[in-house]
Amino acid sequence: METAHAGQTTGNGPVRTRMWRNGDLEAENFPIAELGPRLRETGTVVWLDLLAPADTDLRLVTDELGLSPVAVEDSVTARERVKLDRYRGYVFLNLYAPETTRDGLVLHEISAFVTERALVTVRERPGFDVDALVRRWDEGPRPLPEGAAPDTAPLVHGLLDLVVDLQLDTVQALDGDADTLEELIFDDAFPVKEIQRRSFRLRKDLIALRRVALPMREIVDELLRRPSRLVPDALVPDFQDVYDHTLRVAEWTDELRDLVANLLDSRIALQGNRMNEVMKKVTSWAAIIAVPTAITGFYGQNLPVPGFERLSGLLVSTGLIVGSGVALYAVFKVRDWL
């Protein structure tokens, strides 16, 4: 078996290549120029990974596989929607692998051309773990039956399975963020700025994940659909498992979106309740202060009153002030206004 420790570099970014013969890995990291000759060999399947490809590399692959200029343009255009397009002799896929970072959700775009015996992945930016994809190919799924025609279906399964698993990991991480947000909302400290920051980021990440995860159901279903099914019978259970995972991601994302909406409604209600509590306390203290003010104002009239210029008058007014204040405090405390 031919091997190389690192991918070759042509154009703007590194290129990785692999060739399998009858299901066994035979060559790795060979030049792009060898794509045609290796595909013309018997029983071979080839994979190319192009990172920020140069025009010459794209032209070589396009001419060799007979790709449409429209599909090639989509592969190097950023922020294309998630989709599966059928062309004569091949299928074009556009997928997004999510990654959770400290700054929020990051989506890594992956375009793929799938022919009967070639898989070409195109990425404009690094970030997607290609080594994890290679490991997934090496570890499964099970090979096609003895004597079956060479097929890229196992490679496509590995790619889809990895992307959907990353989406599952992401929605699980967002679920943890929702739990943290719930704890903050019902915390006695009620950190308003932190709650607003986390809720905005969580809603933004959920919208982004939902936009790239929901179409995955249609993509896998299209691959499995008869009579033009692209998946051999031996791999149907493996693709069906990926389809089940796409349903789980979609359902979990929708549930989280509803949960976050309910949490935000709860935050508004709790904030209103806390405002009412503050207003009750302010009103209660204002009432306690108002009674002594009324008493001292009454004794401040320019008229003789009981106890005028006597010690008994001072004691009576002081007693009224202290007694009324204590009585009002006790009443408000019993009613839980303070």
TrEMBL record:
Record's keyword terms, sorted: Cell membrane, Membrane, Transmembrane, Transmembrane helix, Transport
Domain of life of the organism encoding this protein: Bacteria
Coiled coil: none
Subcellular location per the Swiss-Prot or TrEMBL entry: Cell membrane
Cross-referenced Gene3D superfamilies: CorA soluble domain-like, Magnesium transport protein CorA, transmembrane region
Transmembrane segments annotated in the record for this chain: 282-299, 311-332
InterPro entries membership: CorA_cytoplasmic_dom (IPR045861), CorA_TM1_TM2 (IPR045863), MgTranspt_CorA/ZnTranspt_ZntB (IPR002523)
SUPFAM superfamilies the record matches: CorA soluble domain-like, Magnesium transport protein CorA, transmembrane region
Membrane association type: Multi-pass membrane protein
Protein family per UniProt: Belongs to the CorA metal ion transporter (MIT) (TC 1.A.35) family.
Protein name, entry field: Magnesium transporter CorA family protein
Organism from which the protein derives: Actinomadura rugatobispora
